[in-house]
Each structure stands twice: as structure tokens, then as C-alpha cells.
Design a protein that fits this description.
The structure is a single chain. The protein folds into two domains: 2-207, Acetamidase/Formamidase-like domains (Jelly Rolls, Sandwich), CATH 2.60.120; 216-291, Endonuclease I-creI (Roll). The chain has helices at 232-250, 255-265, 286-292; strands spanning 2-3, 8-9, 11-12, 20-22, 26-32, 58-64, 72-82, 86-90, 105-109, 111-112, 115-118, 121-124, 128-133, 141-142, 146-147, 150-152, 163-167, 175-181, 195-196, 198-207, 216-218, 222-229, 267-272, 278-285. Helix 1 crosses helix 2. Helix content is 12%, strand content 39%. Strand 21 (216-218) and strand 22 form a beta hairpin. It binds calcium ion (CA) and zinc ion.
């Protein structure tokens, strides 16, 4: 089933009208606008001319039949197809270089044959999803903000081949996604990756044997718990503590052993440090978890 890019919202909100409802497991294709709602189309279109009420649209939401608050869903990302050109911006006050930047600039990044042309540099594509999540139980959360519901996590691991596990907060989940990046580095330090419109193929299913407070992503290499907070320190701390708890719950490790194993071969990593809340993850190598005999199906 196709979710077209003319059906979107700017907040994850339990009151959003679903664009469709589906039974799980379900294969869906989402068409998405870029994070600027396609308001930037040439280098003269600058961040100052943007209508900021129209940033970070997420296509959907989709109501998942028979999914209740408290359930867990797995979103397998089968493919991401990105549209040329990608768009990047530099702006005074934006991102980590905020105070050094004196002039606003827009860069269009042509995409062809698996590479993005950053001026005359060819960067291999690393397509990923910036905004993906479910409606929160409480007040609406703007799509530009990350949290335990998902949202603007800007996590490079949310890419083709990965499976994202999301705790559902309201009946039907109200799943939505958008903000594709053709190429992005950890941190997203300028506030934009190579922002693109595109299409995403996902398979959504219900998960029965795992409990999570925050999103978890599985790639072919790692299992990572993703947390967002006011500061990067807090986000790292939460993701690290929750990974330790995850390991003690689903393996025979004691807390001390889990912590030492994480210290030996796990990685505290930055997802993004430029959104209203910061996002970090703690990643454990999958082969180590498999050797541990983790007692849930991954
Ligand atoms: Ca984003
Ligand atoms: Zn983006």
C-alpha cells in the first residue's frame, strides 16, 4: 500500500486523522517530502525565506489495527529511494558552528548513480530516515523533536536493512515517517544532512517478547538503544543505562558483567546534537549478543 506525500502532518499527535488503517504484518511504501516541505528549490531559496511552520513533515499517520498502547512494533526498512537534488543549508545561528557562520547559504547536491555530488566531490549515498515514530500518549510532539515515541532521531543507523523497534503509546500507534537524508554524518552538525524527498519501503509487524521504554534499532552489525534528552550527557546516560538493563533482562549477565562487557566492546555514540532535544545511542555488536545467547528473537 502506498502512503502518498500529500498526506502528512507536522506533529506526532494522537488526534491526527489516520490516512489509512492496516492489519499487521503489513508492507507499506511511504512517499515523503524533504524536511523543508520542498520549499528550497534553488540556491536563492535561503533558510530566511522558509515558512518554519512547514518544516519536518511526516507522511501518514497509519493506524495499525489491533495494536494497543503498551505494545511494541518492529519496522523493517526494506529500501529507501532518494530524489535528486539533495539540499543543504548553512545559516548564522544554526548548528554547532552557529557563532562562526556569517552568511546564509544553500547548496543543491545532485544525486545520481549511487553518489551525491557535493560540489565536485562524489559522496557515496548513505540513505537514512530522520523522522520516524508513533503518536505520544500526552501532548502532541512536533516532528522536529525526538523522544521515546521516535520522532526526529536523526540516527544514521535507521537505514535500509535495519529494523526499528518502537514502543506504542496510543491504540493504533499512528505511525508516520519523513525527513530522508541521502548522506548524513553522526551529529548532523549543521542541522541539515543532504535533505531529500523520496520513498521508503517498510514492513511493520507486532513484537511479543520484548519490553522497551525507548526505540531500539538493529542493523546487520549492532543493536542500539536510542535515547533523547535536554543534553547529550543525559541522552548518553539514559541509552547506556537502558542497554545495561536490557542485557541483564535478556541474558544471564549480572549488572556488573553487563557493564564491563559494554565498556569492553560497546559504543556510546552520537546520533544528533542540533535538534531541540539531543539524541544518543548505545550500540552493542550483534555477534557478541548472539554468542551470549540472548533469549529473545532478533
Ligand atoms: Ca531531522
Ligand atoms: Zn533532515
Amino acid at each position: 500500500m502506498l502512503i502518498t506525500k500529500d498526506k502528512y502532518s507536522f506533529a506526532m499527535d494522537k488526534r491526527n486523522e489516520p490516512v489509512t488503517q492496516v492489519d499487521l504484518p503489513c508492507k507499506l511504501t511511504f512517499e515523503t517530502l524533504d524536511c523543508f516541505s520542498e520549499q528550497i528549490n534553488c540556491t536563492e531559496d535561503k533558510i530566511e525565506t522558509l515558512d518554519f511552520n512547514r518544516v519536518n513533515p511526516a507522511s501518514g499517520p497509519v493506524y495499525l489495527n489491533n495494536i494497543k498502547a503498551g505494545d511494541l512494533i518492529a519496522v523493517n526498512i526494506r529500501d529507501i529511494r532518494v530524489k535528486s537534488p539533495g539540499k543543504m543549508i548553512a545559516a548564522p545561528g544554526a548548528g554547532i558552528l552557529a557563532n562562526l557562520i556569517t552568511t546564509s547559504e544553500t547548496l543543491l547536491v545532485p544525486i545520481e548513480n549511487g553518489v551525491a555530488s557535493f560540489k565536485n566531490l562524489e559522496l557515496p549515498l548513505t540513505p537514512m530516515i530522520g523522522v520516524i515514530g508513533v503518536a505520544p500518549q500526552g501532548e502532541p510532539i512536533a516532528c522536529g523533536v525526538p523522544g521515546s515515541h521516535g520522532g526526529n532521531m536523526d540516527t544514521t543507523l535507521i537505514k535500509p536493512g535495519s529494523t526499528l523497534y518502537l514502543p506504542v503509546q496510543v491504540d493504533g500507534a499512528l505511525f508516520a515517517l519523513g525527513d530522508l537524508h541521502a548522506v548524513m554524518g553522526d551529529g548532523e552538525i549543521m542541522v541539515s544532512g543532504v535533505e531529500v524527498s523520496g520513498e521508503v519501503d517498510v514492513t511493520i509487524s507486532k513484537v511479543y517478547d520484548i519490553e522497551l521504554e525507548n526505540p531500539l534499532v538493529k542493523t546487520d552489525q549492532v543493536l542500539a538503544i536510542i535515547a533523547s534528552a535536554e543534553t547529550l550527557d543525559q541522552a548518553i546516560e539514559t541509552s547506556t543505562i537502558q542497554m545495561a538493563q536490557f542485557l541483564t533482562k535478556y541474558t544471564d549477565l549480572t549488572l556488573n558483567e553487563a557493564g564491563m562487557l559494554m565498556s569492553a566492546c560497546g559504543n556510546a555514540q552520537i546520533s544528533q546534537i542540533v535538534d531541540p532535544l539531543k539524541t544518543a545511542r548505545f550500540a552493542m555488536p550483534l555477534d557478541v549478543l548472539r554468542k551470549l545467547g540472548i533469549n529473545i528473537a532478533f
